[in-house]
């Protein structure tokens, strides 16, 4: 059935592509954060274990919202590790988990990357007057900017 929401197909496709990259980055960050939650050790164990759990729990909801927005625009949401690997600008964790301080540094970079990916997707949504996507992107930028700030504060 034809989608008639006031945004032409070309613009919807461009927006969905940006959201797909955001979804891939968000899912990769979810996995990285969950991995760190399981594997963190050291004097900050309790603090980081709990913080990482809060962050990956929030991300679990976020990836669903991003995927559902892609679907509302009429396109399939990527949903495989292969797709996410191709689309994500965040590197996946492999091998032995790093020390706690290095985990924090890597999560700061990943949080900041999600902000940049959301920011890159914003102009297409704005140009098409796609307020729901613009709102979603704004919310995601706010969350990840705050998370990056909080993590950076632990490194001082």
Automatic annotation (TrEMBL):
Which InterPro entries does the protein's record reference?
DPS_DNA-bd, DPS_DNA-bd_CS, Ferritin-like, Ferritin-like_SF, Ferritin_DPS_dom
Q: Where does the signal sequence lie? A: none
Which GO-annotated molecular functions does the record name?
DNA binding; ferric iron binding; oxidoreductase activity, acting on metal ions
Report the residue ranges that make up the Ferritin/DPS domain in this protein: 17-156
Q: What is this protein called?
A: Starvation-inducible DNA-binding protein
Family named by the database record: Belongs to the Dps family.
Per the UniProt record, the source organism is Methylohalomonas lacus
Please name one Pfam family that this protein belongs to: Ferritin
Q: Which UniProt keywords apply?
A: DNA-binding
Q: What is the lineage of its organism?
A: Bacteria, Pseudomonadati, Pseudomonadota, Gammaproteobacteria, Methylohalomonadales
Q: Which domain of life is it from?
A: Bacteria
